[in-house]
Amino acid sequence: MNKNIQLKKDLILRNITNNQSLFDGLSYEGLCIIRDFEVPIFVYNLLPQEIADIQITYYSKKCCFAKVINFIKTSNARRKLDLDESMLYESGSALLVVLSYENQIEFKQNLIENLFRRNLGINKINSIIKSPNQLSYRNKITLQVDYKTNKISFGFYKRHSHELVEQKDLLLANQTIRDFYKSVLLNPSSKNNKQFKDTILSLKPKKITLRANNYSTNEIEIILYIDRNIEKRLIDNLNEINKLDDAYKISIFNELENKWINLLNHQGIKCKINNNIFEVKNDSFYQINEEVTKEIYQQIYELIPNENLNVVDAFSGVGTIACYIANKTNKVYSIELNKNATDQAKRNIELNNISNIEIINADANEWINQNKEKIDLIIFDPPREGLRKESINAIVESKINKILYLSCDPKTLIRDLNEFVKNDYLIKKVQPFDMFPQTPHIETLVLIEKKYQI
Questions:
Q1: Does residue 70 form part of some domain?
Q2: Structural domain of residue 354, as residue ranges?
Q3: What's the pLDDT tens digit per position in 233-270?
Q4: Residue spans of beta strands (DSSP E) within 181-330
Q5: Domain count of the chain?
Q6: Per-residue pLDDT averaged across 387-406, rounded?
Q7: Is the residue at 88 inside a domain?
Q8: One of 32, 64, 323, 408 is an active-site residue; which one?
Q9: CA distances (Å), 124 to each of 114, 302, 358, 430, 440, in order?
Q10: Which amino acids does the record list as binding S-adenosyl-L-methionine (predicted)?
Q11: Which residues are annotated as part of the binding site for S-adenosyl-L-methionine?
């Protein structure tokens, strides 16, 4: 432990290395951890077994962050990146892109196994299910827009900053989004594309979200986030352009007025999971990687007993899980707080001709507390912050014997599972999925059952 060096912001440290293995020396976020000082230093763009000079970019009494300023020795595990991959990596949006896909999978498997072993004493974790596509898998991506230079730039902010890293391609996005980005936003390939780009940018959006999918590849939703009043003529211009090309589904969120504007009153884009069709628009939640989502939903379907149960699909978004499992249940309560999403969920059960789903616009945690006696089985797919303790307590006090918990954050998952285990629930299955290749994020499905069936 080197306690003689006073750590501070901008300090340069020479010949720094982490001698742990590749999979023990990286943090949950994919950063190299240096533990030779009084507080840990998390280093961007450094792998274990590498030697480099680093500069501290952030200091606190609990931890530091740093960047590499000079490599002295690089690891055999490091991939050589092309220009587009380097720009993506620099933004911090894909911190595992420097590793081969097999190394990424091994890192994630090791991380999940360590978390479950250390915190819950569980050693049996299923092998992570890989993504069929390691690039071009995202059906939604958000770009920051920079107007500070002589030209307008699109890209991603570096982590913990407002420094834009411009992107010449969107490697993680699906092909429809990538094509639109390059032929419309970057280098308009026709007069109509140029007019469309100019009209969009005249609104001065702070960021732009693009959403498309592999089912209706001619459609793309364009969401503009603005913070000022809009002149009617600009909306009229966009509507006119939209009439020329109805593949563009344009939405505007005015942060100043806290409201959505859907041009030509569009219903969003159509997505498909197996035989179910879903309309998705605006800020409604829909899984990013559709190929992996199919695998997850099929496993959820198979884990539901062949009984006529009343099932809750909590944090349900536009009702995708509810629709997928409906024919194996007596009734599904699809609960979602986002009003846009519940409105779309109602349309989606009509589109799929399903009659045993009740769509509820409510806070899932609160609804479960008040209606626990109605429920036989719960499927949770919460945001990263996980569940509230009151919700877990309500389940513990109820007759609910079986829970399926789908999580995008292993840390909050472990926290919540600990609460269930303390209250006589058993963890019967843990199945990780690689929903987010090139990033450290992991999706995990857990089957939880009451130790003593009621």
A1: yes
A2: 109-132+288-450
A3: 878 877 777 666 677 888 899 988 888 888 877 888 88
A4: 207-211, 220-226, 248-254, 259-262, 269-273, 276-280, 310-314
A5: 3
A6: 88
A7: no
A8: 408
A9: 11, 20, 36, 8, 21
A10: 287, 315, 336, 381
A11: 287, 315, 336, 381
Question: How far are the Cα atoms of 50, 85, 154, 289, 304 from residue 91, in angstroms, in the given order?
Answer: 21, 10, 12, 21, 41
Q: Are residues 301 and 430 in the same domain?
A: yes
The CATH code of the domain that includes 234 is: 2.40.50.1070
| Distance separating alpha carbons of residues 295 and 16, to the nearest angstrom | 42
d(CA 387, CA 394): 11
Contact by Cβ (8 Å): 332, 314: no
Residue 156 and residue 260 in one domain: yes
Q: Of 42-56, 57-71, 387-401, 425-439, where does mean pLDDT reach its minimum?
A: 387-401
Task: Say if residue 314 is in the same domain as residue 446.
Answer: yes
Decide if 408 is catalytic: yes
Q: Which of 271, 297, 315 is at the close of a domain?
A: 271
Residue pLDDT, tens place only, 328-387: 999 999 999 999 899 999 999 999 999 999 999 999 888 988 888 889 999 999 988 999
Q: In sequence order, which residues have a C-beta less than 8 Å from that of residue 165 and are 6 or more positions away? A: 87, 90, 91, 155, 156, 157, 158
SS3 322: helix
CATH of the domain at 293: 3.40.50.150
- CA-CA distance, 177 to 288, in Å (whole number)? 13
> Residue 104: inside a domain, yes or no?
no
Residue 279 neighbours by CB distance under 10 Å: 19
Please tell me the distance from the alpha carbon of residue 273 to that of residue 210, in angstroms, as a whole number. 20
- Helices 364-371 + 389-396 axis angle, to 10: 20
As annotated, the binding site includes: 287, 315, 336, 381
Tell which of 210, 242, 271 closes a domain: 271
Tell me if the pTM is above 0.85.
yes
Whether residue 11 sits in one domain with residue 63:
yes
Q: Is 68 helix (H, G, I), strand (E, B) or coil?
A: strand
Same domain, 430 and 312: yes
